[in-house]
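Treating backbone geometry as a discrete language has practical consequences that deserve illustration. No coordinates are needed to read the tokens, only the vocabulary itself. For completeness, the protein is quoted in full, as a sequence line and a line of structure tokens:
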Amino acid sequence: MGFNCGIVGLPNVGKSTLFNALTETAAADTANYPFCTIEPNVGRVPVPDARLGQIAEIAASETIVPTYLEFVDIAGLVKGASQGEGLGNQFLGNIREVDAILHVLRCFEDGDIVHVSETVDPVRDAEIIETELMLADLESLERRTEGLIKKARGLDKDAQAELDLAERLLEELRAGRPARGAEISADEAAAYKSFQLLSAKPVLYVCNVEEDNAGDGNAHSAAVAAFAADTGAASIHISAKIEAEVTQLSEPEERTEFLEALGLEETGLARLIRAGYSLLHLITYFTAGPNEARAWTLAGGTKAAPAAGRIHTDFERGFIAAETIALDDYIAVGGEQAAKDAGKMRQEGRDYVVQDGDVILYRFNV
């Protein structure tokens, strides 16, 4: 089970620069002209988590394996994409394949870099893409309702329930509100997901600011934060230029010194990765032993048996128990055996909901 975030935005806002810094590669071309990125670039990025290092030290693990997020650099969008303008159809299709959207917004002034709208206004830019996503959803839902109406007339109860949901969502979209803000009941969740609405995807606005504003942001990023709060999204600010410079430094000490000179405690990319992880409502659980300490990614609310299946299908198929230690207990007492001796290891069944930070040893038989 993979989780991925699509990096989107208008042309020339710093998407590919940010992607290259995230993945520490030159996989994405960067240039000062629209549609530099045509085919989406994909990169896997480790999620920074100090807890994994603590666990590995206690378990005396030979290797450390972090959990990962996947980032997809998608072509720049222009107004009219929902009608096929620019690379609109391809762009929208690529967005449909990702779990969440990282929307990069230009929040810096630079006369040497062309802006497709000639002026810097990140809220306007955010609204352009939001509108294109909602227009595409409107067209998709309107087509969907035509078939549902026919089925509902035949007294198909499931079709009637889907139709009621679709009509509510259409009301939201026609009012200029993204689908992610609609109230969806547990019974409607499956139908809601099946609609594959672009504006239903969680969004993180990434404000690309000047180097001098990397710490506190600027007026542009503050305006975006207010806009995000109003539309059910989140936002952070980051300087893609600084992040690109950091990746050129090979030694951790050099990176730390560089950031400290700029008054920064950590890279913006570390914050961005964690924000993407949070955006998808993901949790991390751990396995640890002398050979390996590893972090595993799960959707929040996942039960122990399918969580075991993340390691190997045999673990889920032959699940017996999840010997579970809360992270604080694992660290406080000094590892697995000490936790067992102190009565801090619990025997959990297949329906136990795994918690963020759990350290788990699975018992299974196939």
Notes: DSSP finds 14 helices and twelve strands in the chain. Confidence is low (pLDDT under 50) at residues 26-38, 84-88.
